[in-house]
Amino acid sequence: MPLSGVEVAKHDNKDSCWVIVHGKAYDVTEFLPEHPGGQKIILKYAGKDATEEFDPIHPPDTLDKYLDQSKHLGAVDMSTVAAVEKVEDPEEEERQQRIKDKPLLEQCYNLLDFEAVAKKTMKKGAWGYYSSAADDEVTLRENHEAFHRIWFRPKILVDVKNVDFSTTMLGAKVDIPFYVTATALGKLGNPEGEVLLTKAAKKHNVVQMIPTLASCSFDEIVDAAEGDQVQWLQLYVNSDRKITQRIIEHAEKRGCKALFITVDAPQLGRREKDMRSKFEDQGTNVQSGQTTDNSQGAARAISSFIDPSLSWKDIPWFQSVTKMPIILKGVQRAEDVLKAIEVGVQGVVLSNHGGRQLDFARSGVEVLAETMSVLRELGLENKIEIFIDGGIRRATDIIKALCLGAKGVGIGRPFLYAMSAYGLEGVDRAMSLLKDEMEMNMRLIGCTSVDQLNPSLIDTRNLGSHVTPVPRDSLGHTVYDPLVPPSFKPPKSKL
Ligand SMILES: Cc1cc2nc3c(=O)[nH]c(=O)nc-3n(C[C@H](O)[C@H](O)[C@H](O)COP(=O)(O)O)c2cc1C
Known about the structure:
Bound molecules: flavin mononucleotide
Subcellular location: Mitochondrion intermembrane space
Distance between the termini: 46 Å
Domain FMN hydroxy acid dehydrogenase: 103-463
CATH superfamily of the largest domain: Aldolase class I
Radius of gyration: 24 Å
Main location: mitochondrion
Helix content: 25-40%
Domain Cytochrome b5 heme-binding: 1-77
CATH topology of the largest domain: TIM Barrel
Shape: globular
Largest sheet: 8 strands, parallel
Number of strands: 17
CATH class of the largest domain: Alpha Beta
Catalytic activity: (S)-lactate + 2 Fe(III)-[cytochrome c] = 2 Fe(II)-[cytochrome c] + pyruvate + 2 H(+)
Number of helices: 19
Strand order of the largest sheet: 9-16-15-14-13-12-11-10
Number of domains: 2
CATH architecture of the largest domain: Alpha-Beta Barrel
Structural class: alpha/beta
């Protein structure tokens, strides 16, 4: 006999808290203090259907994994559950209208166009999580702008009739030197989540890095891959190493081809857009002097397990538990690349986490220039595979990175935005646009294959100056969503 909605609704407080997820009831009373996102958000749904809020943040196997079976109360007759009151929300109505009026997919000509559409069509909280970066977001903008300080020195009169920009990354043959980097919470942007990125990656023969904190379960993302499609695992290291070991072994068994350990996040950065939108989404009464929501945005809510004591001393342990190549993601200085070579890992990603961690961290491409000159001087340039990510929006950015010596680049937000605004077709188009740009720019620089890209083709004299001489009305500036101060009470006339 399924439970009735009336019965579930009785358990609507912290002394007895039941919630419904996908038609089943769960007793989460004892779990309340442990919830990484804080109690408040669960209590908002106490006695009610929490599916819509639950889905983007939790992989579907979460309740089976983390909530004791005795707390699984069974099916609920959903016809007896009171529909969640739809409060009139003029902002949401406007958003729905904008979704109807959005540009045709064919009107998006470059990656920043997807960001412009996503900004106007995504839910506020989702946009807050994807677009936010640390503190004043200086590194976020610098990531993109650093590429504007590298100029080309193209060769002319080269036969460029046939251009091939395929390459190999960590042994995987790919059509173009970028990969889909790990970005958490795919379902905030699209109800299907990360599996859409898997499908697009397959179509374009590029690698997908699976995030530890995906909205889909790890197995769903691996199951969505086809044939010999290559996937890598991004790992946040849990303070409980047994959990980490289980994740690594499972990934290796399921065929993941590399392990990217994130090393730039011993604590999550303060991402104020995310914090502010979460705060507002929860309808907290800012004016009443209540304490603020302690979950501090989606990012902090989901990451409390990450081990801040992770250090170089742990690397041999990772090497002892897996045969997958190990890559450190988030390296930010040449000295640490030398250490990475010394400890025998196979690669590094020069990255600042898309500007979401340490503000005023330098861009990956600047660190790349610094690193390659040190490695070349020491004759170590072939000892390790070097990747970068952050701010890559054009094929010219990819070419610049490869000229400097990167094996490939990771791209994060643009695919999230394309997926949020236009679903799979959007990601497909974003990748096609990059391929078109790549073909044209390889020709224009006078190269027919990626092994011809070298430092003589670029002028980096201004790279380290941190002054970008581009017009402030460049596309990147146009789509950038500035930080805003806290809002005042609306004037009485508007209440
Ligand atoms: C919404 C979002 C979520 C992210 N989640 C993760 C994550 O879970 N693990 C991780 O190592 N990096 C994460 N990153 C960082 C990306 O892997 C990558 O370093 C960054 O997005 C590259 O910059 P870009 O967005 O400008 O391309 C995330 C980035 C974004 C934008």
